[in-house]
Amino acid sequence: MGSDRDPLAVPTPELRVRGVEALRVFDASMMPNIVSGNTNAAVMAVADRAVAIMMEEPRRAAASLQKIHHTEPT
Question: Is the dihedral of CA 22, 25, 30, 31 positive or negative?
Fold first, then answer.
């Protein structure tokens, strides 16, 4: 995982796979380093964050559409 400037980073910070539409990765394979503790806890934390990201996107899209709707002349 990393920024767009990192050629080795496959998933974006939003956990989308670069170059593939409508695909996200949020399992242990997206971690750049294996954690030294409980890997299950780290994967569960990433999955929780992924769900929060995915739940927020429709809200942002709806807010954006509502904003456009209110700014159009009637």
Answer: positive
H or E stretch covering 19: none
Contacting residues for 23 by C-beta, under 8 A, at least 6 apart: 16, 17
Q: Can you say whether the dihedral through the CA atoms of 28, 34, 37, 42 is positive or negative?
A: negative
Residue 3 contacts by C-beta under 8 Å, 6 or more apart in sequence?
A: 9, 13
Looking at this protein, which amino acid is placed at residue 59?
A: R
Higher pLDDT, 29 or 65: 29
CB-based contacts of 9: which residues, under 8 Å, 6+ apart? Answer: 1, 2, 3, 18
- 62 phi/psi in degrees, rounded to 5: -65, -40
Question: pTM score > 0.85 for this model?
Answer: no
